[in-house]
């Protein structure tokens, strides 16, 4: 136990990998019968040779295209699935053993899955979680109030979860994930589908929470604003492999990330588009002010697949 307290790294992996083996069958009843005697299998490599380290009090931004292996990595580190190859240590524990002492110190939040109960209020869900984690009831209620104030959502604690907006539900899920004060937190797309106000509130909350509580966090996101504001370290996964492990600044300089500004002028129906990077923002706003009366305006990030593709091209050219 004392050794765990003195650990430099909260998370360490070495050549971690996961291969899925699936039954492959052609269409038809006859082929189904043949499968009983001569089964054909295909292997899908979800993750391979993943090696990295994460310190307490740091946020690792985990990025990659859909199907790259991000969620697979989080599930292995939280003990939900077993690795096929390699090893992982989180807080000195082996995640796949799912020891109670380990599970009490981690939390995983999947942005597209609910952990709270759908038909009861968040406050009632937190009461159940308090029992599950064997927490002090008074301290737990106080923590819920504190976290709700920070997330600006006290007014919905007594409303059924299914009646809340997506942004409000995500805030409730975050409170549930932090109720037992985990030392390691896995966040999978916590801002997916949220409006700009909700995204900003959650980003600011996480930034403040990490500074005060010092947990190690792995954050996956398709929004580069999440990564740029929060991440101390960036891991880029492509086709199941970690192809970049370094600073966010270097990644953004290498890819020259751009955004799209889409606007519509008064008395027109046609939308116009400007593609720009952060250094060009002042000039873009100046040009827009001269264009006329703007009645509709939105900013979009470039396609994330394109960001990764351009980064890999740049790295390949440098080598």
What report would you give on this structure?
With 319 residues, this protein is of the alpha/beta class. The protein is built from 12 helices and 12 strands. The strands form 3 sheets. A 6-stranded mixed sheet has the order 5-6-7-3-8-9, with helices on both faces. Strands 2-1-4 form a 3-stranded antiparallel sheet. Strand 8 and strand 9 form a beta hairpin. Helix 5 packs across helix 6. The longest helix is centred in the middle third of the chain and has 18 residues. It is globular. The N terminus is likely disordered.
* Tertiary shape: globular
Q: What oligomeric state do these chains adopt?
A: single chain
Terminal CA distance reads: 44 Å
- Share of helix, binned: 25-40%
Trace the largest sheet across and list its strands.
Answer: 5-6-7-3-8-9
Mean pLDDT figure:
86
Discrete helix count: 12
Enumerate the spans where pLDDT stays under 50 for 5 or more consecutive residues.
1-5
The strand count comes to: 12
Largest pleated sheet? 6 strands, mixed
One letter per element, helices H and strands E, the order comes to HEHEEHEHEHHHEHEHEEHEEHEH
Strand content: 25-35%
Using only C-alpha atoms, the radius of gyration works out to 23 Å
Alpha-beta classification: alpha/beta
